[in-house]
Design a protein that fits this description.
- The chain is of the alpha/beta class.
- The chain folds into 2 domains: 6-225, Spore Coat Polysaccharide Biosynthesis Protein SpsA, Chain A (Alpha-Beta Complex), CATH 3.90.550; 231-422, UDP N-Acetylglucosamine Acyltransferase, domain 1, CATH 2.160.10.
- Helix content is 22%, strand content 28%.
- Strands 13, 15, 16, 18, 19, 21, 22, 24, 26, 29 and 32 form an 11-stranded parallel β-sheet that branches.
- Helix 1 (35-46) packs parallel to helix 5.
- The longest helix has 21 residues, at 231-251.
- The radius of gyration is 31 Å and the shape is elongated.
- The protein starts with 5 loop residues before the first strand and ends with a helix.
- The structure holds uridine-diphosphate-N-acetylglucosamine and calcium ion.
Length: 448
């Protein structure tokens, strides 16, 4: 079966007005990735080419597709006349003569590659049309699978169902597989004589049956069919996605103390033996190596965390934060676009941005790299083994030499050479007895 060629057609021309959004529905995100991109990923894992049918918001979709499916061909459905009509927008791609045609909806982001592969397997066994169904106690709104003597004979949309048919709980999940050799003939035979006056893709089931072709229904979980129409359903899908990913992480050797409070992105990578404490959020682009500890209430995005690192609690790692082995970024610290070399410690209430912190350096509490003058960003270089005293401001561009010391409370505006000691603060003056004199003077003044 691996020799069979495949075309996946993803329908994404819907208006999606129920999202109440200027963004096309299928570009709303699950785990930081547009839902249509989740569908494209599933399609990729089934193999073959991808055709994306777009309509409403075509320019935005075309631009987004550049990043999530750069090889996909886009086709525009000018008028929204139904799902069969939408598939035919990709006529040119279908006519190329693939063995298997898969049709999926851009708004069903939890589709599993397994369902696609199963459907392809049925085509390989000789089916002309394969429907992926699911069972539900609340079938309202879905197309019902109509069977006679155990065989699927038609799919009937809700609005065209009789009262008896409305009680059927076996529904069309939306994913359909069509044998390439019959695809165009079946699709061209679809009419629009139904309650909505649309060209319905599911009608190819009845058409194929009448032509004596084999039609098969397979069953997948409800999640495969979960279509997103509003933001409440978007959140439901997010919750299911997160549950799946937390479980996969734990089975791969990551400890989640309170899994239901940890949120991953579609591309989060975490090594085995890493412990993630409660309430941690991963934005896109995070890689955590093995044996790290991410303490509670940390927020990571676009960051790399090396082996055995310690992060948080309450740490914020922003894009470009790159933590070397066994380094530490502690509570209430923010790191952005900075390399923290192995074993360095940035432990308390500190901002490190546009910087390098050399191996084994120690950054005292409240240290700030002053990297921005309102127009440009400037770089701070801190050498290996340097010690930055608490509450220091390092005004970039600046370089602090290896093995040097910066006195607490310094404002450093000039480069510090290796092994130097730099004071950047006013010298303290202490006046004996002046405190008592001041107190007595104030007390007399207060009585007047
Ligand atoms: C569809 C199925 C129904 C199935 C359900 C599963 C049809 C006629 N009905 O119903 O049997 O149970 O999905 O969720 O297929 N689209 C276009 N162009 C169009 C029409 C639709 O691109 O002209 C796209 C939409 O953007 C959407 C998908 O096709 O991604 C499904 O269309 P939708 O109108 O949501 O169909 P349902 O009523 O949900
Ligand atoms: Ca739908």
């Amino acid at each position: 079966m691996t020799k069979r060629t495949c075309l996946s057609i993803i329908l994404a021309a819907g208006e999606g007005t129920r999202m109440k959004s200027a963004l096309p529905k299928v570009l709303h995100k699950i785990a930081g990735l547009p839902m249509v991109a989740h569908v494209a990923r599933a399609a990729e894992s089934a193999g073959g080419e991808i055709a994306l049918v777009i309509g409403h918001g075509a320019d935005q979709l075309r631009a987004a597709a550049q990043s999530f499916a750069p090889d996909a061909k886009t086709f525009v459905q000018e008028k929204r006349l139904g799902t069969a009509h939408a598939v035919l927008a990709a006529r040119e791609a279908i006519a190329k003569g693939h063995d298997d045609i898969l049709v999926m909806f851009g708004d069903t982001p939890l589709l599993e590659p397994d369902a696609l592969l199963q459907a392809r397997a049925e085509l390989a066994k000789g089916a002309a049309v394969v429907v992926v169904g699911f069972r539900t106690d609340e079938p309202a709104g879905y197309g019902r699978l109509i069977k006679e003597n155990g065989a699927l004979v038609a799919i009937r949309e809700e609005k065209d169902c009789s009262e008896a048919e409305k009680k059927i709980g076996f529904c069309n999940g939306g994913l359909m597989a069509i044998a390439g050799e019959h695809a165009l003939a079946l699709l061209d035979a679809v009419g629009n004589a139904n309650a909505k006056g649309e060209f319905y893709l599911p009608d190819i089931v009845g058409i194929a049956r009448r032509q004596g072709l084999q039609v098969v229904a397979i069953e997948a979980s409800f999640e495969n069919a979960l279509g997103i129409n509003n933001r409440a359903e978007l959140a439901e899908a997010e919750a299911i996605w997160q549950r799946r990913r937390r479980r996969a992480m734990m089975l791969a050797g990551v400890t989640l103390i309170a899994p239901e409070t940890v949120f991953f992105s579609h591309d989060t990578e975490v090594g085995a033996e890493t412990i993630i404490e409660p309430s941690v959020f991963f934005g896109p682009g995070v890689k955590v190596a093995a044996g790290a500890k991410i303490h509670a209430f940390s927020h990571l995005e676009g960051a790399t965390v090396g082996e055995g690192c310690d992060v948080g609690p309450f740490a914020r790692l922003r894009p470009g934060a790159d933590l070397g082995e066994k380094s530490k970024v502690g509570n209430f610290c923010e790191v952005k676009k900075a390399i923290i070399e192995p074993g360095a410690k940035v432990n308390h209430l500190t901002y490190i941005g546009d910087a390098r912190v050399g191996a084994g350096a120690n950054i005292g509490a409240g240290t700030i790299t002053c990297n921005y003058d309102g127009y440009s960003k400037f770089f701070t270089d801190i050498g290996a083994g340097a010690f930055i005293g608490s509450n220091s401001s390092l005004v970039a561009p600046i370089s602090i030499g290896a093995g040097s010391y910066v006195a607490s409370g310094s404002v450093i505006t000039e480069n510090v050479p290796d092994d130097a000691l730099a004071f950047g603060r006013a010298r303290q003056r202490t006046m004996p007895d002046k405190g008592r004199e001041l107190r007595e003077r104030r007390a007399v003044a207060g009585k007047k």
